[in-house]
Design goal:
The structure is a homodimer of 267-residue chains.
Chain A lengths: L1 E2 L2 E2 L2 E3 L3 H5 L2 E9 L2 E2 L2 H15 L6 H12 L5 E8 L16 E7 L7 H5 L1 E10 L14 H12 L4 E6 L4 E4 L3 E6 L2 E5 L9 H12 L5 E3 L3 H5 L3 E6 L3 E8 L2 E2 L4 H12 L1
Parallel strand pairs in A: 8-9, 8-15, 12-13
Antiparallel strand pairs in A: 1-2, 1-7, 4-5, 4-6, 6-7, 9-10, 11-12, 11-14, 14-15, 15-16
Chain lengths: 267, 267
């Protein structure tokens, strides 16, 4: 683990990341000593820092630290957190404080192979995401909604859960973005009011537009999800999992999801 | 500073308080070696921990730690944080992990005397609070909305700002609860969808009901606020500040606020 470039596994109890969740993060998949999609993750990190008015550490600096970690960790999950740092007491940020950045390393999770090939069973979470346009899309450290939703899934023995917002729009998985194949079209929920806009979501949209098959980004209701031709979830660790079961509905084949999964793996 | 009962000023970078804002906190005013309203704060802490499924540390344990700090700190702000602790990677809480609890100490802020006597100038923040009934009322560590709102106030040179929610209900200050004297009645916004239900808000309600003058807890719109006889804000550090100026409106006298402030001081 590295905190501000030095070997450490702790941060100050006055760090605003702890006090207020005042920071952002990325989760990278490391395989064969390579951090997959690092430049895309850095772009997102920079975007999210800027959205909160946090000075994002330099690409060269972070890449150097990452390289130093990759030598000892050929396969891992690497988490990168950037917070607004310490500063004075109180909610208001003080401009003088330097941001904190840190890396943590964990083993790659050992998901069953058939999740990717045969799909997963998913439930609709009871928790509804609050609408907050000012924070929507950002992978910030205020993640209590995800914690409560993930606890529901865990209790129910589900690999993932779908999150709706308080207006009953379907938004995402608890830790993944959602795509539908709906009447033959690729659709992903609009994230203007809540949700996290992940790297894999962007990649699917880029791939699709290259295929002249642009993704519709719009409001999605549960009824449309239940009637979709296919559903799939993505994040940087799982890559892509189709959904084979959601409440009363079953899906047996995922031709589009399989094609996209292959395309993402080969890029 | 104490972390889990030991002198320390740092916590693990794997603490869920940092990773997800997965915890709650209290801010105590210490004066003349006494932590004001400690039993009420503990009640709230326990309530908030329970709402998130975090095991709240024992009253006796925390009181003992607090006593050990009060000896050296006759006048201070003491912050108590309880997080869900470390646990495995991922949003879902693991039952086995013990919670983290920690104390931090800061000097009492040096607010101008006339804030309490003559009132403060307040603006309406541009940021709107998202509605999340599952987290409403809880003093949890997901405080990015407060950070962004406080930054607005700071930039505008305001001592506080009023927060509305996405449905344009008036909810609270960025770090305080709001009361109105509206057509002669005491009113405070309903916090079922967002906001933090503070100790001083409860105290005003208890005091008022003892006076046979119960507080109306209900939806409040900005128009009612602008036409109120009096407005005042409370938290455990500032106690009570009347509002003397809000956007185009001025208030010159605060008889009810002054009476309540006095009553709270004497209790």
């Amino acid at each position: 683990m590295l905190v501000n470039g030095k070997r450490s596994n702790s941060i100050s109890i006055r760090d605003r990341g702890l006090l207020y969740g005042d920071g952002v993060f990325r989760t990278l998949r490391v395989f064969e000593h390579r951090a997959q999609l690092w430049p895309l993750h850095y772009q997102k990190l920079h975007h999210d820092c800027t959205a909160l008015g946090i000075t994002c550490p330099d690409f060269t600096l972070l890449s150097g630290e990452l390289d130093s970690l990759l030598g000892q960790h050929p396969a891992a999950v690497m988490k990168l957190i950037v917070t607004r740092g310490e500063g004075a007491r109180g909610y208001a940020p003080t401009r003088s404080a330097p941001p904190t950045h840190l890396w943590d390393i964990a083993p790659l999770p050992d998901y069953p192979d058939d999740y990717a090939a045969c799909g997963i069973k998913v439930q609709v979470c009871r928790l509804r995401l609050g609408q907050q346009p000012r924070l929507a899309g950002i992978k910030h450290l205020n993640r209590l909604e995800n914690v409560l939703a993930a606890a529901e899934c865990n209790d129910a023995g589900m690999a993932e859960g779908l999150l709706l917002d308080t207006q009953n729009n379907v938004i995402e998985g608890t830790r993944s973005n959602l795509f539908l194949v709906s009447q033959g079209e690729l659709v992903t929920p609009d994230l203007s009011n809540c949700g996290v806009a992940g790297v894999q979501r962007d990649r699917v949209m880029t791939w699709a537009s290259r295929q002249n098959r642009p993704v519709q980004v719009r409001e999605v209701k549960l009824e449309e999800v239940m009637h979709a031709d296919e559903l799939f979830l993505l994040n940087s660790i799982i890559s892509l999992w189709p959904i084979r079961e959601l409440e009363q509905r079953r899906w047996a084949a995922f031709p589009v999801a399989t094609q996209i999964r292959q395309a993402l793996l080969e890029e």
